[in-house]
Amino acid sequence: MSDTNPTADAPRSPGRPRSIRADEAIIEAVLDLLAEGSTIEALSIEAIATRAGVGKATIYRRWPGKDALLLDALRRLKGVVAQPAGHSVRDDLVLLVGAVGHNIDPRAERIMPCLVPEVNRSPDHFQLYQNIIEPRRKIMREVLRRGVATGELRADLDIEVAMALLTGPMLVQRLMRWHPELDDRLLPERVVDGVLDGLRAR
Amino acid sequence: MSDTNPTADAPRSPGRPRSIRADEAIIEAVLDLLAEGSTIEALSIEAIATRAGVGKATIYRRWPGKDALLLDALRRLKGVVAQPAGHSVRDDLVLLVGAVGHNIDPRAERIMPCLVPEVNRSPDHFQLYQNIIEPRRKIMREVLRRGVATGELRADLDIEVAMALLTGPMLVQRLMRWHPELDDRLLPERVVDGVLDGLRAR
């Protein structure tokens, strides 16, 4: 892969090395095509190459195939994973719930919901989608386990159900604008406090 | 609207009156076109008429316009609204949470997620979507208010947040198959008990 080494690109143009510009143009092309309504199935290396203004070989030198490229492109939508401070379980959960469904790229709003039915029809694509969300899920699972260990959370906590209780409300609100009366900015604290304390009168 | 009266249809064919068959063919045409990937915007009365094998006038005799027809078609996906028994707040919530994201028509799985970004771009369509879900939301709100009144639920309950806590986990699981390790059939009880009791150690 000599062209991942910028010194191999001649003549050098100013700004970023050509190989990095090509990477970004390819990722951008994938996201643009998906945001314009292309299904994963219809997305071809050829269409991506044309859109990015590169040759197909340039794509295959960087990614082994469409799925690996898609994984990188979809991860780009979501930005870096939030890292909890590790002091208070409640505060860590507020941070993590605040990051649920948060995308750094506005194209995500068009891409993500429509991906759902397609992902559910293909085991390979479902795995791809799980690969994107599992690193985030793992961090929340660790915070909940810590809470059980320190005695802040119930000893009999079902961790997977607890993650659904914390994540679901934020995800439907962010992704689907499910409930017009809820304020997205205040919701992470309200969800975490509501789920921690419970609705039942004591 | 003489053709809504079956006696006006001559000759009578066996089975359902022709006017009811036309209604159903029109609704079916809308759902088929949406399930095949048509956006609400691209959906035209002309395309619906062609697909249903009726004239455009037949559609306009029954519905004042596309939005009213869409509302009927999307309601059809969801079936009748669950009616809680009114004895135990917990049992009523299990019933209502079990109905969240439940569609009687398999086309819903393709139609509903992709509708989300489109609905969010158009205030009219957002209102249409709210008109579909508001009757269901109203029933849950009433159960929660009853729980506050009877003292089963906290007196300071934020009803709208509580609805998000109960509905969100089930909706992401049903609509997005968000979490492969959760069993959809057991989830309504687990969600309700988890949210009522809270995660915090006592």
From TrEMBL, chains A, B:
Protein name: TetR/AcrR family transcriptional regulator
Keywords: DNA-binding, Transcription, Transcription regulation
InterPro entries from the UniProt entry: Homeodomain-like_sf, HTH-type_TetR-like_transc_reg, HTH_TetR, Tet_transcr_reg_TetR-rel_C_sf, TetR_C
DNA-binding region: 44-63
Pfam families: TetR_C_11, TetR_N
Gene3D superfamilies in the record: Homeodomain-like (1.10.10.60), Tetracycline Repressor, domain 2 (1.10.357.10)
Domain HTH tetR-type: 20-81
Keyword Magnesium tagged: no
The organism's place on the tree of life at top rank: Bacteria
